[in-house]
Amino acid sequence: MAMTTVLVQVDSDFASESAIESAFLAARKDGGHVVGAYVSQPSNQVTAEAMMFSRTEIGMPGQDVVAALQFAERRGGPEALEARHVFERIAQRRNAAIVESPPNPGSLTACFTILEDHGPDTLALQGRIFDLVVVKQPKNDRNHELRKLLRSVLFNAGRPILVAPEVAPLSLGRRVLIAWNKSALSARAAAISRNFFEDVEEVAILTVDSKGGPGPTAWDLADYIAWHGLRAQVIEAEVGNDRLGDVILREAERFDADLLVMGAYSQSTFRQSLTGGVTNYVLSRAAIPVLMSH
Question: In terms of DSSP H, where are the helices of 180-233?
Fold first, then answer.
């Protein structure tokens, strides 16, 4: 079954556009629903500068400036207003109808919401009632805020997470590369990735230093995928003197993947480090969306 409901982190910055585009690519075109969520900050206030915006500049046809500013004052400030504009502009381009309640199946829909800030787990808690949560790539993350958010969603939402690259992808799930290390985490991620196989053209399984450790091999995983009606090739690679993260990213580029599927840290290891390890290395540098699960 393909993804049907998707929650995406929305801000007013450039990186949010890629996350929103990725969310719409992940949603089913014949029955998907994308919710753009802005987390309000208690300190947000409507400024004098915001008062100077015209209706055209705000980009909200049919809503006058006074009503728009009342919305901003009540629900998160001018940044929330801009985030809503960015989300609804992309939704319109994707031909998604803006709805507030579940419609009849058969169409792509969307809505924008503002979540009251209840700390670092705000998005993760909301994500528990969605099929997928999409967040921005933790790149140029000087204060580690994006890594904290990603970690929270990964371990507290109970849902798979899609990390969107800095530049919006043109496709998602047509060429899928699964990084396989025999772990339970990579097995769960591989199983969830089947939701993206609706329009898949080719699947590859990457195994690095494949002789090490017990557990099913990449060829066993290829058989599993074959039982679900798809053939997958196996790519063997060696780390040598390279970083494991560089090997994964290089093979994803060689395969021309538009989706990388991989497991994440165990919870204890991930909580101990915000900047080190293979997972963070790949997430900070990947040029394509990365699907993970815990």
Answer: 184-193, 218-227
Residues 127 and 230 in one domain: no
Provide the domain limits for residue 15: 5-164
**Helix extents (H) in 194-232:** 218-227
Q: Judge whether 88 and 20 are in contact, CB under 8 Å.
A: no
Say which amino acid occupies 185: L
43-57, 65-79, 151-165: range with lowest mean pLDDT: 43-57
Distance CA 258, CA 173 (A): 6
Locus of tokens 């015209």? 54
Interval 195-218: pLDDT, tens: 777 788 999 999 997 666 788 999
Q: Based on the fold, state whether residues 103 and 137 are members of the same structural domain.
A: yes
Cα 171 to Cα 51: distance, rounded to the nearest angstrom: 39
> Within a domain: residue 242?
yes
Whole-model pTM: value is: 0.84
How many Cβ atoms from other residues are within 10 Å of residue 219's Cβ? 14
No. of helices (H) and no. of strands (E), the chain: 12, 11
Measure the CA–CA gap between 81 and 49, rounded to whole angstroms.
Answer: 13
Q: Are residues 40 and 154 in the same domain?
A: yes
pLDDT at 140: 72
